[in-house]
Amino acid sequence: MWAMIMRRLSVSVISLALLVTLVFFMIHATPGGPAYSILGSHASPEAVAALNRQMGLDRPLLDQYGIWWDHLLEGRLGYSYIQHVGVSRLIGVYLDRTLALDLGALALAILVSLVVGLLQGYWADRLGGRIIGFLQIVFYAMPVFFTGILLIYVFSIRLDWLPPGGVGHPGWVGRLRHLTLPVLTLALPVSAGFSRYFGHQAREEYRQDYVRTARARGLSEWRIATRHVLRNAVRPFVTLVGMMIPVLFVGGVLTESVFNYPGLGWLLWRSALDQDYPTLSAITLLIGVLTILGNLVADLLNSILDVRVRYE
Amino acid sequence: MKAMASTPLLSVEGLRVSGRRDGRTFPVIEEVSFEIQPGRLLALVGESGCGKSLTAAAILGLLPWGFAVDRGRIILEGQEVLGLSRTDWRCLRRRLVGAVFQNPLSALNPSLPIWRQVVEAAQLSFGLDGRAARARALELLEIVGVPEAESRLDDYPHQFSGGMRQRVAIGLALACDPRLLVADEPTTSLDLITQAEILRLLQRLQHERGLAILFITHDLSLVAEYADDVLVMYAGRTVESGGVRPFLDGPLHPYSHALLGAIPRLEAPEVRLTDIEGVPPSPFDYPPACRFAPRCLQAIARCRSEDPPRVGDEGHWAYCHRPCGPEGA
Ligand SMILES: Nc1ncnc2c1ncn2[C@@H]1O[C@H](COP(=O)(O)OP(=O)(O)OP(=O)(O)O)[C@@H](O)[C@H]1O
Ligand code: SF4
Ligand SMILES: [Mg+2]
User: Fold this and answer.
1) Cβ-Cβ contacts under 8 Å, A306 against chain B
2) From A131-135, A224-228, A273-277, the region with the lowest mean pLDDT
3) Average pLDDT in the B86-105 region?
4) Separation CA A99–CA A96 (nearest Å)
5) For A213, which of B87, B159, B172 is closest by C-beta distance?
6) Sign, CA torsion B75/A215/B31/B250
7) Which residue is closest in CA terms to ligand 2's atom 3?
8) Angle at CA of residue A287, ends A32 and A7, nearest 5°
9) Which residue, among B234, B218, B216, B240, has the nearest Cα to B286 in the 3D structure?
10) Which domains does chain B have, with CATH numbers?
11) Which domains does chain A show, CATH number per domain?
């Protein structure tokens, strides 16, 4: 067990180091470089050289790489020359909103897919199972901006129940009302994907003999679903959820832009347009770190759930 | 044992189970009737696909999707169960009927410690608390002969051998002290020594606790050794029934006769019932009148046009136009 955790942790650390390196070279390989984006593309070569010297961009790449690490380890993410504010502060403001949206959608998607997946497994070859399967394909294929605009049209424009975008004023009710449509939009395709996978697992479990044994012992279908099938079907599902976290973030970026919701995705999109490299690299790093952590947590959870891993 | 067990524990009367295919319903088993007295072992035999498991499934409320009992009665301890609500029947079954199946390797949930599975039904039926449940689990594992049961309570199914798992599975079935055990080929996937051990365990439960057992098997050599009564099925119908001695000494139905002829005289216990010429018909095209006629060596014209009459007496009967004599026909 401990050996497994150590192995898994070292894999995560290596992934993190690779990620940091990759982001560094990604930024430094872009044509023009940061100076041009700050000074504008018609800046004189002298001004660019001066700025590069000021930012340390004229030093050997390896030195810069070392400095990049030093700064990261000290938690310094740099300064956004576009927004004129420290990147950490900038991200702090936007991260909250993104977490609210992404985690809300994730929680909703997990809940929905557990219920739908169990039903799908239980109904397997019956009509109900087929209808669920069809809906999953439809919702999975539906682009986020299409769902988003559809929901805005129905719930904001036609029914006037919920705001079409923005974050709203501070306070729970306002925030929740502003979150509802984006969360639904993001959760829909994710639920479709999750529940399809989990439904497949549940269906396999329902075919196992232990389900028949449980029925023969007079256990109720509810108990069989929640105490027996769920337990076995959820294990691979946990891994899937971990793996899907980056996809969720990408969906979040699109959702944020549809709803004009100022979160990290929105910031990422803006900073890419503005060539705001410090912000861009910090967000990329953050998403990468969250992904690696998500996978790590999923794997560890999985090994706790899966007794057989412990005995191997 | 009560000597005069007059009321049967389970009685099945004129049971018909139908399935659906291409929008049409068709009966898969029909006119199945039998009784089991407390403390007796009834062996249900017949070739693959004749409807043995479906009969058991009907009694256990485990019919596959698309199959339903649409005629007949199932009476358990004097109570007609088909009229009960699903939940009532399930709770009645949970207390009175246990079941064991063929494949012990997959019959247990791989991710729950066995003691939880063993007592689960008892906890639901009798509301045992944690300590009492664990004690009951230990008791059950001891009854089915799991060595050093106390230290194995928290083990998971994969830590047991196939034979041990089948013992645990029997423990599961006994959780609520059932009166009836339905065992659908419980030893088919086990090696011979383990098979004999499991059968002796069933026999002990039968004798010590007056457990009635419906034992489904392919293997007629087991019938001779362990059964009290025999029921032979062919193509979805019961064709012969009787006490094991009269049945073995003088089977009435030509099909039973052929089955018994297929037991090798020497000690080769695993017998596949495929030594009869031809194959059994499928439920979609059962022949009219006697369903065995296409394969029967004694068939006459009447066998294909008129339903065969019941011959013999209460203790041993068969449906046939030309039953075999005491020495065989
Ligand atoms: N789940 C199912 N779906 C469709 N048909 C089925 C199903 N279960 C059983 N049948 C059909 O019902 C008939 C009776 O099957 P059953 O399983 O009762 O036979 P059996 O006597 O137990 O055979 P075996 O000795 O092989 O276990 C067979 O013709 C089979 O094809
Ligand atoms: S009724 Fe006729 S065909 Fe059927 S088993 Fe008897 S003799 Fe054979
Ligand atoms: Mg069978």
Assistant:
1) 111
2) A273-277
3) 90
4) 5
5) B172
6) negative
7) B293
8) 120
9) B234
10) 10-111+156-319 (3.40.50.300)
11) 2-73 (no CATH), 91-310 (1.10.3720.10)
DSSP annotation string for A150-178:
HHIIIIIIIS--S-SSS--SSSHHHHHHH
Q: Is the CB of B159 under 6 A from ligand 1?
A: no
Rounded distance from Cα A15 to ligand 2 centre (Å): 76
Residues A290-306 pLDDT 10s:
888 877 887 787 777 66
**Number of residues that make up chain A:** 312
Mutate to test the interface with A, among B109, B116, B123, B124 (most CBs of A within 10 A): B109
In chain A, which residue's Cα lies nearest the Cα of B156? A307
Ligand 2 atom closest to B296 (CA): 8
The whole-number pLDDT of residue A308 equals: 52
Looking at the complex, does the CB of residue A308 fall below 8 Å from at least one CB of chain B? Answer: yes
How does pLDDT run across B151-207, given as a tens digit for each residue? 999 999 999 988 899 999 999 999 999 999 999 999 888 888 889 999 999 999 999
Smallest CA–CA distance from B56 into chain A, residue: A216
Average pLDDT, chain B: 88
* Nearest-CA distance A8 → chain B (Å): 23
Could you tell me the two tokens for A3? 């050996």
Partner-chain residue, chosen from A213, A220, A232, that has the shortest CB–CB distance to B90: A220
Q: How far apart are CA A207 and CA A133, in angstroms?
A: 18
Of all residues in chain A, the one with the smallest CA distance to B106 is A209
- Contact assignment for B91 to A218 by CB distance below 8 Å: yes
Question: Are residues B246 and B315 in contact, defined by beta-carbon separation less than 8 angstroms?
Answer: yes
The confidence band for A84, taking pLDDT boundaries of 50, 70 and 90, is confident
